[in-house]
Design a protein that fits this description.
Number of strands: 50
Shape: globular
Number of helices: 2
Oligomer: single chain
Largest sheet: 22 strands, antiparallel, barrel
Distance between the termini: 73 Å
Strand content: over 45%
């Protein structure tokens, strides 16, 4: 009996000494600093746990030492010994995994519409989510971002990105780290990116890290798929406007990707079509990764097109052509706790039109002509080194580039002027542009940056970074800084503080929002003086609340941006002036990532204000103070998903005409009021769609039906004063009720 009692006492004392401990582990990608979903953590080879969408997992143990093995598809594994003492009840760890881009298996993530980085604000969208969202004609990787809280929708028909009170040119767009200029088709309706080749896209609405540069609002990084397919796979789709096809072919240690897309409007006797081509080859040799890619995009518009039956009287010339060419080569080498990467690239946007037509009929000797030869090209290289260890994620790098801008045009009377609301065709290049213009400039830029993410504890981490920017036209070095501080009060509540400042050496002088089949064709200007170099300082505070009932999450972010040297158009004097301004606001987001019903509701209050030379304050052309957005997916069945997006926001400002009169030249003249002293009607749009997934043998069939502007609201976006009218007809309509239907096939 005494032995039994003694054994019980020993057992009890042993149980008390082996206290239950809570272990929390966060897994991140070392190259992007983003959490890794689906990482498997094996404990003593006995049991395993899987990280959630935030890269987070927790479990209980009683041991004082465990061995863990971390594995994730597409990453090098990591093995660690963890020690625990009995004085603490909770332990938190952060581990980084290094990517193996060429060996990543194909993974489709559903339910999670987008992710945010735990520190600074970043949105990430994947193709599976893009294709569910209501779209205009077809899924568009850039247009889809307009559903996010930080992005303002200026017009129904534009895919440009306006971030937190900034103009569209203040957001840098990159494809695999290659910058692209004016990357749009059909007057800005669509981006030139085939969504089938996009692996994911990241949008920094502000406070982007120092490895990026050259934009005073934000950065959009589109990353093509980096997985290696096991077998030949492909996709094809047919829609009302375009058809596209893509294929991925495994080749030994590498893979080849090819995609193509084309419209067929020209087959319907419409003098316009566009196409884009993309190909990439990636190869892995031991710890070395190589990638080469090329993108070619082209629009064609036959400006000599005419319905005149007397074809013999028409002298035809070459059609207008515009588009992008981008090529890059990347190299990455993995070491034990670090990696080094280099990138060499070339990118060019061009517009070429030569001629017009001349009617040779004696009864009608009219002539039209149009000569345009514009381009902007950039040749550059990047290099960076990343090391992770001892609670640090350290990165250092530099980049150099040469940007050349050449613009020559002579715009005479031509048929396209009928599509331009405010002035002639030349105004699509920059506001108040002359009919004849010639310029050529070259900018040399070099930058050096350094950053470090420091994990102080499981609750506190912060990042510091800086960049030195040299611009040859100003002959000056501009330092910029980046600070991030994150405090996790608990699993459910965290706060983040961000500060960063930026400069932008290449910008447009385009504020007016016009209806044009050739817009945006903005000409870029280079900063040659300090007082013409746009600058901004960003401050933001983020509060996040997780694990709310019904799988809800709540985000609240306040931001303030001080903005300097902003190009601004003034209708009274037809001049461009560089002004200072501010942008500030509040974003509230409530979202649900999982379940048959998922999506988000967001409210954004944003003001974008400028100060004129007299100190008077007026709203910027793209100022929308109040915006409400709701995006919902509902899984009707395993096959069909219904989706909708509703947006309601304040009208954009415009400069009204106070008086009209006929001058001595017997032409109408307008007397304008104060800059942007009035607003168009509020914006109100509902888009709906239904998307299917039908498995037919080895093929996955994806039919879709989508409707833009279901309520057929006018959503005016442009004020066009008329000589004889003074009513709502002076405001251009945004869109009509537009249905689209199509089908895609994957194999």
């Amino acid at each position: 009996m005494r032995k039994i009692i003694l054994l019980i006492m020993i057992f009890i004392s042993f149980g008390y000494s082996q206290k239950v401990k809570r272990v929390e582990i966060l897994i991140k990608d070392i190259s992007t600093l983003e959490p890794i979903e689906g990482a498997v953590i094996s404990i003593d080879s006995l049991e395993s746990f899987v990280t959630n969408s935030k890269g987070f997992v927790n479990f209980d143990i009683v041991k004082s030492k465990i061995s863990i093995l971390i594995k994730s598809l597409g990453y090098f594994g990591k093995k660690k010994l963890l020690y625990f003492d009995n004085k603490e009840m909770k332990f938190s760890f952060l581990f980084y995994l290094r990517p193996k881009p060429i060996e990543l298996e194909k993974v489709t993530i559903t339910g999670n519409r987008y992710k945010e980085k735990l520190q600074t604000r970043i949105y990430e969208l994947k193709p599976s989510e893009l294709k569910k969202m209501p779209a205009f004609v077809e899924a568009d990787a850039v247009r889809a971002l307009q559903a996010l809280p930080s992005v303002a929708i200026i017009s129904d028909m534009g895919a440009q990105i306006y971030l937190r009170g900034g103009n569209y040119d203040e957001t840098k767009i990159l494809l695999d780290n290659v910058p692209l200029y004016n990357p749009f088709h059909l007057g800005g309706l669509f981006s030139m990116f085939n969504s089938d080749i996009i692996g994911y896209e990241k949008l920094y609405p502000s406070n982007y890290p120092p490895n990026y540069e050259g934009a005073i609002s934000g950065v959009l990084q589109l990353q093509t798929k980096r997985e290696k397919p096991k077998v030949l796979s492909g996709k094809a789709s047919i829609g009302l406007l375009t058809s596209k096809v893509s294929a991925e072919v495994p080749i030994k240690n590498g893979a080849f990707t090819l995609s193509a897309r084309r419209t067929y409007l020209d087959l319907l006797n419409i003098p316009y079509y566009y196409y884009d081509l993309y190909c990439k080859y990636k190869l892995k040799v031991e710890n070395n990764f190589y990638q080469a890619s090329i993108l070619y995009s082209r629009d064609n518009y036959d400006i000599t097109f005419t319905n005149n039956t007397e074809v013999k009287n028409i002298k035809k010339v070459e059609p207008g052509k515009w588009g992008n060419l981008a090529a890059s080569f990347e190299y990455l080498h993995n070491y034990k706790n670090s990696f080094v990467a280099a990138n060499l690239y070339f990118t060019k946007y061009s517009l070429e039109v030569d001629g017009g037509f001349k009617n040779l009929s004696p009864s009608n000797s009219t002539a039209e002509y149009l000569q345009i030869d514009n381009y902007i090209s950039e040749f550059g290289s990047k290099f960076f080194y990343n090391y992770e260890g001892g609670g640090h994620n350290f990165q250092i790098g530099f980049n150099v580039k040469k940007i050349k801008n050449q613009n020559n045009w002579d715009v005479g009377p031509n048929e396209l002027n009928q599509y331009i609301s405010n002035g002639g065709l030349e105004n699509i290049f920059f506001d108040f542009a002359p009919r004849i213009f010639t310029s050529s400039n070259t900018l040399l830029y070099s930058g050096f940056y350094i950053s470090d993410e420091i994990n102080v504890s499981s609750k506190i981490n912060f990042s510091l970074g800086g960049r030195l920017n040299y611009i040859n036209l100003i002959s000056r070095i501009y330092p910029t800084f980046w600070i991030n501080f994150n405090y996790n009060i608990s699993d459910k509540l965290s706060f983040t503080f961000n500060y960063a400042d930026f400069i932008q050496y290449a910008y447009t002088k385009k504020e007016s929002i016009e209806k044009s089949p050739l817009s945006p064709f903005s000409m870029y200007f280079f900063a040659a003086k300090d007082d013409e170099l746009p600058k901004s300082q960003h401050v933001s505070i983020i509060c996040r609340v997780n694990q709310l009932p019904f799988n809800l999450k709540f985000d609240l972010e306040a931001f303030y941006k001080n903005r300097v040297n902003l190009p601004s158009a003034f209708e009274r004097s037809n001049t461009i002036k560089f002004l200072n301004g501010v942008a500030y606001g509040l974003e509230i987001l409530l979202k649900k990532d999982y379940g048959n019903l998922n999506g988000w509701i967001s409210y954004t209050f944003t003001r974008s204000l400028k100060y004129n030379m007299n100190g008077d304050i007026f709203p910027a052309n793209y100022d929308r103070p109040h915006t409400l957005k709701t995006v919902f997916n509902y899984n009707l069945s395993k096959t069909w998903t219904f989706t909708c997006m509703y947006t309601y926001s304040s009208g954009i400002p415009y400069t009204p005409v106070l008086r009209k009169y006929i001058g001595k030249d017997f032409r109408f003249h307008f007397v304008y009021g104060n800059k942007n002293s009035d607003r168009v009607k509020n914006y109100d749009r509902l888009d709906v769609g239904i998307v299917g997934k039908i498995l037919w043998g080895k093929y996955l069939i994806k039919p879709y039906l989508q409707i833009l502007n279901l309520l057929n609201n006018p959503n005016p976006y442009n004020y066009v004063p008329s000589e004889f009218k003074n009513d709502s007809s002076e405001f251009e309509r945004g869109s009509n009720f537009i249905p689209s239907i199509g089908v895609g096939v994957e194999f």
